[in-house]
Design a protein that fits this description.
This protein has 2 domains: 7-45, no CATH class; 68-102. The chain is an alpha/beta fold. The chain is built from 1 helix and 4 strands, in the order E-E-E-E-H. The strands form 2 sheets. It has a two-stranded parallel sheet with strand order 1-3. The chain has a two-stranded parallel sheet with strand order 2-4.
């Protein structure tokens, strides 16, 4: 807290000033007062830096399955499926002709 002249703090109960700078002569002209009045106690104390840290670890396992296939095998399977579909189409076409012209 800074002021060019006076600082006045009044409290009905306790007054605590912890880790603060009070300057009643901010303009550095050598005048100004800090007045503190309390109905009970006045505490002026320095502050301390503290650091709290927490760490946590999580452990687990995972399973990865990898399947590697040869593209030639896949193409051969696709060709077989295409031949089977072509054969089925021919059968359906023949059945349709027989039912259309008995």
């Amino acid at each position: 807290m800074s002021a060019n002249n006076n600082i006045g703090l009044n409290a009905a109960g306790n007054t605590e000033i912890i880790g603060s700078n009070l300057s009643a002569d901010a303009d550095q002209n050598y005048s100004g007062d800090v007045n503190i009045s309390a109905g009970e106690d006045v505490l002026i104390a320095e502050s301390y830096e503290s650091v709290n840290s927490a760490t946590s670890n999580t452990e687990g396992t995972a399973t990865l399955s990898v399947s590697v296939t040869n593209q030639v095998v896949e193409v051969a399977k696709a060709y077989e499926n295409l031949e089977a579909a072509d054969e089925q189409f021919k059968e359906i076409k023949e059945d349709y002709r027989q039912n259309l012209w008995p």
